From TrEMBL:
The keyword Lyase belongs to this UniProt entry's keyword annotation: no
Protein name: Putative NBD/HSP70 family sugar kinase
Protein family according to the UniProt entry: Belongs to the ROK (NagC/XylR) family.
UniProt xrefs under PANTHER family: BIFUNCTIONAL UDP-N-ACETYLGLUCOSAMINE 2-EPIMERASE_N-ACETYLMANNOSAMINE KINASE, ROK (REPRESSOR, ORF, KINASE) FAMILY
Domain HTH marR-type: 8-50
Length: 350
């Protein structure tokens, strides 16, 4: 009961912002005495702080506001990408306290060595932050099942059990980037996020929640076949979107026209299938959007115009930070959903 009540109180503060104890009692349905005990536990744990005076619209003296604290507990977001390693530390208020990125070619790298380098980068960031890390999440460029990176063709990794010597959630880069966009970006609650990196992935957010599919592998947009007779792809198929619009293809292209058309074809298929409210382009697609926009919209209109109006097309402002922010945000949501492990076990039940 105490654990669920702690989550109830912290959840209201996380969603609504600063609240008085009286307001928390009214919103949660808990007694003022119970709320006061729970807030005390959260303050002691460093998850919230009391400061200033806030009027609730009631007569009498204003109450003291209770808000999230960014001074003690934080989340660690990590990413292994094909050409870089990245780390960020985000406190409970959503403020980025540390961000580090090292450019390195991870193609054909040894997983153990690469993960050791990432851990060293993370440890340095944590030490400098001075914050207590509640947990970590890692973004990787491939499908993940039960903590195992099943296939990352651009890294040359297969069936890698990811272990950093710390409690860790591991997820696909595009999934976490979509969550980063949801929590730190545009604020849209229904969209298809398309991540343009060496590989291309997508994350579908429906009513504020990530859609993963039956086996967690939804969103492999880069391996949608756009030209069946096209060049071979690293996945073994031919004519995949990645061959035409992945980062390496874009760097070699003299024009963005063919890449934009291929991206438009893949997006048209996705729109027919999942009907997103909005399409948000991230990663390398964001800075290239002025060159990609016209061919993408032309193909979308041609393929969808007879049946429906194409969804709005926009770009993410998070750049290459989307995945590590989504990773850190995932940990923050875990703390908000279950704060009991971070509070004193000596407190009386509430």
């Amino acid at each position: 009961m105490r654990a669920s009540n702690l989550a109830l109180v912290l959840g209201e503060i996380h969603r609504r912002g600063p609240l008085t104890r009286a307001a928390l009692s009214e919103l949660t349905g808990l007694t003022k005495t119970t709320c006061s005990k729970l807030v005390g536990d959260l303050v002691e744990a460093g998850l919230v702080v009391e400061s200033g005076a806030l009027r609730d619209g009631e007569r009498g003296r204003p109450g003291v506001e209770v808000r999230l604290s960014g001074d003690r507990v934080a989340a660690l977001g990590l990413e292994v990408n094909v050409d870089y390693l990245a780390v960020c530390i985000v406190d409970l208020t959503g403020r980025v306290r540390q961000r580090r990125q090292v450019h390195v070619d991870n193609r054909g790298s040894r997983p153990g060595r690469t993960l050791a380098d990432l851990r060293e980068l993370a440890e340095a960031a944590v030490a400098e932050s001075g914050l207590s890390i509640a947990g970590a999440a890692l973004a990787v460029p491939g499908p993940v099942h039960d903590g195992v990176l099943q296939h990352a063709p651009h890294l040359g990794w297969h069936d890698v059990h990811v272990d950093l010597g710390m409690p860790l959630t591991v997820d696909n880069e595009a999934n976490l980037a979509a969550l980063g966009e949801l929590w730190f970006g545009s604020g849209a609650r229904d969209f298809l996020y398309v991540s343009g990196e060496i590989g291309i992935g997508a994350g579908l957010v429906v009513d504020g929640a990530l859609f993963r599919g039956a086996y967690g592998f939804a969103g492999e947009l880069g391996h949608v076949v756009v030209y069946p007779d096209g060049p071979g792809c690293r996945c073994g198929a031919r004519g995949c979107l990645e061959v035409y619009a992945g980062q390496e293809a874009l760097q070699a292209a003299s024009s963005m026209e063919r890449a934009g058309e291929a991206l438009g074809l893949a997006l048209a298929s996705a729109v027919h299938l999942v009907d997103p409210g909005r399409i948000i382009l991230g990663g390398v697609f964001a800075p290239l959007f002025p060159q990609l926009e016209k061919p993408v919209e032309r193909v979308l209109s041609a393929r969808l115009g007879g049946m429906r109006t194409p969804p709005s097309l926009g770009v993410s402002e998070l750049g290459s930070d989307a995945a590590i922010l989504g990773a850190a945000g995932h940990v923050i949501r875990q703390v908000v959903t279950d704060p009991a492990p971070y509070t004193s076990t000596r407190s009386a039940p509430a």
